[in-house]
Amino acid sequence: MPRHPVEELRNVVLVGHGATGKTSLADLMLYKSGVNRRIGSPDEGTSLLDIDDDEKQRHHSITSHVCHFEHGGSRINMIDAPGMPDFVGQVIGAYRAAETVLITVNAPHGIEMNTRKSFQHAGNRGLARCLVLNKCDGENVKLPELMASVREQFGQGCVPLTIPLGTGPQIHGVISTVHLPKEIPSDAALDPVAANQQLIEAVVEADEELMSRYFEGETISGEELDRAISKAIVAGTLIPVFCTAVKSDIGVSELMDALAKYAPSPAQVQRHVLKDGEDLLIQPDPNGPLVAQVIKTRIDPFVSKVNYLRIYSGTLKKDSTVHVVGTDKSIKVHHLIDVQGGQHENVDEAIAGNIVAVSRIEDLHTGDVISDGSDHITMPPMAFPRPMIGLAVEPKSRADQAKISAALHKIEEEDPTFKVHREDQTHEMVMEGMSELHLQLIQNRLHNREKVDVITHQPRIPYRETVAASAEGSYRHKKQSGGSGQFAEVHLRVSACPHGIHPDEYFTRSRFEGMRAFHYDPDLNFCFIDAVSGGSVPNQFIPAVEKGIRERMCQGIVAGCQVQDIVVELFFGKDHPVDSNEAAFKTAGSMCLKEIFQNAQPTLLEPIMQVEITIPSDRIGDISSDLNTRRGRMEGMEEVPGGFSLIHAKIPLAEVMTYARALSGLTGGQGSFTMEFASYEMVPPNEQQKIVKAHAQSHNGEAH
């Protein structure tokens, strides 16, 4: 790794909507800078970056890829990020590594959903933003209308630094708006003079001296603009727009020149760090304390696990020992790797501002921060969206069963938006991802890389059971089979347990007559009350009764679902001096609850999700109608930039299992949603009948 000073480093991430030509653009820059001897093409499977089998097959990026090239005296580290929202986890790590975000736009299609999201996310992180209008050689490109739309949606700071000569397939070059030629070509697709004026206005806004001179009527020269552009980009008053046609190799050299000349170096963008809980700014000093963060993890079939690090301060050297912040672990860095797509080169050290990889370190994970232990400095945590779509998964064969857990764990390591857990109630293994496509690619990876095949289906809804009334009754368990038998009799009372109670204030003798003690479980909002009088149930057997009740609650009573929100009082019973034991009282407690539960208006509860839906504003009517069919309740709505609206709603989980596909269809792929658990609510009677009937049929089928 050639040692460039921090001022000569550029860290750039390519983002935007899918199929805007990000990877093709990166491949062309690698070719033009001499890294690659031929131009890679994702469509032909020859890209230096899209190296996974799924990427070659689908002709688009699925994971982020790191590369670098030398140009104009700078080392430009570039991360090519996926454009599809299904793989947003890869983009979040890339943002943490970069100072500059290149947001690519498909010029014939205009601004799309992920264009807006990328622009907003980059701005929220305080990163420098540039727009690349690619495919300017396409048919039906209306650049004046597109540029007007860009400035309307993203602000008047969006100014073209390059303008095409010719339009559509007739494009034959670009003209700079920084240094205007004496004679303006007649076939410029936009007015270069007007663009130059817009550029001056955006630049002087970030420089008081230039602004003063500008308002006094002085002319701002091209050379002065050159020197001030980078400052304006960092300040956010200027968002450069570059016009390119990658397939025709037009405008790309000018873009590379601009990255080397104008894109901010790590020294121009201060990073927030946490020291002993205090928010501080850190400078990228190679001689400072080591602070680096894992921005990405990859399981490589040849070199095992690879962690990609962005170094914010200090110098990381091979064979050094570093500390994982927030743990008591120290790790030895045996190898440092300079990454070029799928190619790796060992290096001795990497300084602040650079992106580097380490291999075969099991105790290092995405988001982890490493230091040299000299200072208690860490980075803010990386926030990844919660996966929305779940599938129950099981191994296809016994051989797959032995490998499935390790295989899924590897994928979890690589992808922070993929999670696997086992449902306590349904006992299913459930994998969760951002979309159906995301989970389909996970299955492909399991098959192709891990040699594991799985069967998937929609996970069962974790319904719960409760009661809406009170009931009491008794059960006598008596069993005699020679020798000592079993005998126990219990009398129970069951009632609903309200939410939001303070146990010590609610469970009192004035409310529960004869109460001697209570055990409250906040997770299930369940309380067992010991109200036994006169020793009718010996004290040593009372815990067994509670255990039997809890086991029955776990098994479910009317639909095989966990019982919650109930109070069970044990108020009387009988025992036998010889035949009574813990097993007998446990059975009696379980069976007694089963019988009286049926007389207390058993009710099913379903999980309700708090959902936020982002849609084009002109689709509100369609979405509202669809929510009604899903038993959803709209709770509010607000406008968001770019002609979009954000709907707040509550929807039963059973109705959102396939919502991603429906939302995409209703919004032309422009809608998105997030959800999180809100509460349990009663299932409507007609739906409850269906669920109970299905459980009964399934139970009878198993019995036969």
Quick rundown:
The chain has 704 residues and is α+β, with helices and mostly antiparallel strands.
Provide a descriptive summary of the structure in words.
With 704 residues, this protein is an alpha+beta fold. It is 29% helix and 32% strand. The strands form eight sheets. The protein has an eight-stranded antiparallel β-sheet with strand order 16-15-21-12-13-20-17-18. A hairpin with a 2-residue loop joins strand 2 and strand 3 (74-80). The mean pLDDT is 92.
User: If helices are DSSP runs of H or I spanning 4 or more residues, what is the number of helices?
Assistant: 18
- What is the end-to-end distance? 69 Å
Give the total of beta strands. Answer: 37
Structural class based on helices, strands and sheet pairing: alpha+beta
Sheet-strand content, in percent, reads 25-35%
**Low-confidence parts, pLDDT < 50 over ≥5 residues?**
none
Strand order of the largest sheet: 16-15-21-12-13-20-17-18
How would a crystallographer describe the biggest sheet? 8 strands, antiparallel
Tell me, briefly, the overall form.
elongated
Task: Report the mean per-residue pLDDT as an integer.
Answer: 92
Percent helix among the residues? 25-40%
- Rg is 32 Å
Blueprint of the fold:
Layout: E1 9-16, H1 22-32, H2 53-58, E2 65-71, E3 74-80, H3 88-97, E4 100-106, H4 113-124, E5 128-134, H5 143-154, E6 158-160, E7 162-165, E8 173-176, H6 192-204, H7 208-215, H8 222-235, E9 239-243, H9 252-262, E10 271-275, E11 278-282, E12 291-300, E13 304-313, E14 315-317, E15 320-324, E16 330-333, E17 336-340, E18 343-347, E19 349-351, E20 355-359, E21 369-371, E22 377-378, E23 389-395, H10 398-414, E24 419-422, E25 429-433, H11 436-448, E26 454-457, E27 464-467, E28 471-479, E29 486-496, H12 503-506, E30 517-521, E31 526-530, H13 542-555, E32 562-563, E33 566-574, H14 582-597, E34 602-616, H15 620-629, E35 633-640, E36 644-652, H16 653-656, H17 659-667, E37 672-682, H18 685-703
Parallel strand pairs: 1-3, 1-4, 4-5, 5-9, 6-9, 27-32, 31-33
Antiparallel strand pairs: 2-3, 7-8, 10-11, 10-22, 12-13, 12-21, 13-20, 14-19, 15-16, 15-21, 17-18, 17-20, 23-25, 23-26, 24-25, 27-34, 28-29, 29-33, 30-31, 34-36, 34-37, 35-36
